[in-house]
């Protein structure tokens, strides 16, 4: 609710104007250069949508995942949220997720059905994510002056190819790694997959009707929908009234959306992110602005690339290597944290 109200207040008139002038807007140098290439016909996208939509309905009906009309609803969810979330991602490079709202909708619609819950979530959430990934890639191709039709074909071929490769790798891992997705299968403990499974039990098997019902202690949490809808209004008013104050830096969807990543993300990551953001985007931006303008983006891209490269190197070198045991290598310095010590207590003698 915060996202929709925030985007409506800040970008509503601009979205409406862009929709009306999408074909008559002034062309920049990139668009003028791209006019030399043939555009992707609309019927290409229509045919692709019809094929994938019909295939989704057939699969869900044949394998009894969920009724066909829920596939329609799952398609409408990203239709509503793609533009608002795309704006937030363009401004902050953060993408709020639709996992909770999709689980909430299907949890009330089909309670006690975890398979339908995860299926609806995938169609509602991942469709939006893939749409924004496609837009991002097409934008990059636009700036790189790649023919639009070539971009369309490559994106489609890459999606189909990746589907089979990822499915094959998943089956290979499940059949070759002993005790996969369990603590004994470290490092293949599948933290995200376990979170996905836990969400299917919480939102699907139990359902929000029981979890947030009138007799539940979590029932007051539902009032946060109203709070989320109202909260952007005073912030927007203060930003309009005091445009040069600290209020202009407040972006509620970004601030609130990080809570959705908490499981399975360690809470300590937020502290590290805050420290790095405060140093680079406040201290250096304020006192060394010239350096920040010249090197901040390059440094960010370099750090992201370094993480990706180091991940590959560490996986290839250290996965099977016998590492020395010392205090700093112990990942669990608080042995009582998982159970609070209750399982380790010895019952007093009778």
Topology of this protein?
Layout: H1 2-20, H2 29-34, H3 42-62, H4 68-92, H5 99-109, H6 114-143, H7 148-176, H8 191-206, H9 208-211, H10 224-230, H11 232-241, H12 252-257, H13 267-287, H14 289-318
Helix pairs in contact: 1-10, 4-6, 5-6, 5-8, 6-7, 6-8, 13-14
Molecular structure report:
12% of the residues are buried. Helix 4 packs across helix 6 (114-143), helix 5 packs parallel to helix 8 (191-206) and helix 6 crosses helix 8. The N and C termini lie far apart (56 Å). It is globular and about 60 Å long. It has helices at residues 2-20, 29-34, 42-62, 68-92, 99-109, 114-143, 148-176, 191-206, 208-211, 224-230, 232-241, 252-257, 267-287, 289-318. The model is unreliable at 339-350 (pLDDT under 50). With 350 residues, it is mainly alpha-helical.
Distance between the termini: 56 Å
Global morphology: globular
Q: What structural class results from the helix and strand content? A: mainly alpha
> How much is the average pLDDT?
86
Q: Indicate the percent of residues in helices.
A: 55-70%
Fraction in beta strands = under 5%
Estimated radius of gyration: 24 Å
Helix/strand order, N-terminal first: HHHHHHHHHHHHHH
Quick description:
The protein is mainly α and 350 residues long. The protein has 14 helices and no strands. 67% of the residues lie in helices and 0% in strands.
